């Protein structure tokens, strides 16, 4: 039941699994859940952000084209609550499967946004 649940929804937490099993009449610990999933070849990993479309579109671009690119990124630091990493249970080499990724959606709240960039000529 543990493996089946995690296969359907890799974002299931150990706490969710413990609660589901308790409702079914079986008492287990979080450590038992982890050990069971590890024996099935699964491990807890950070969910990846999927950016495959861009990578595939530019796979064969010549090196000179990249000298005209400015790379930028931003991060949000939440002032209230946790800015925690979500974890998923997955098998080896399955990190980019859609079930194992999280969408890159921004939402409001008390936070600070930071931005930076760099190019072939240096940081900005």
UniProtKB/TrEMBL annotation:
Pfam families: HTH_Tnp_Tc3_2. GO terms for molecular function: DNA binding. InterPro entries: RNaseH_sf, Transposase_5, Transposase_Tc1-like. This is Transposase Tc1-like domain-containing protein. It comes from the Eukaryota. One of its GO terms (biological process) is DNA integration. Residues 1-60 form the Transposase Tc1-like domain.
């Amino acid at each position: 039941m543990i493996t089946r649940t995690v296969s359907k929804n890799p974002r299931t937490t150990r706490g969710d699994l413990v609660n589901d099993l308790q409702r079914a009449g079986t008492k287990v610990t979080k450590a038992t859940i982890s050990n069971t999933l590890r024996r099935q070849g699964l491990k807890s990993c950070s969910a990846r952000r999927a950016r495959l479309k861009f990578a595939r579109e530019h796979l064969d671009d010549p090196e000179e084209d990249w000298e005209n690119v400015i790379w930028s990124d931003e991060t949000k630091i939440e002032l209230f609550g946790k800015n925690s990493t979500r974890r998923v249970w997955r098998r080896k080499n399955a990190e980019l499967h859609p079930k194992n990724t999280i969408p890159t959606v921004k939402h409001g709240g008390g936070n600070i946004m930071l931005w930076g960039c760099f190019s072939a000529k240096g940081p900005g």
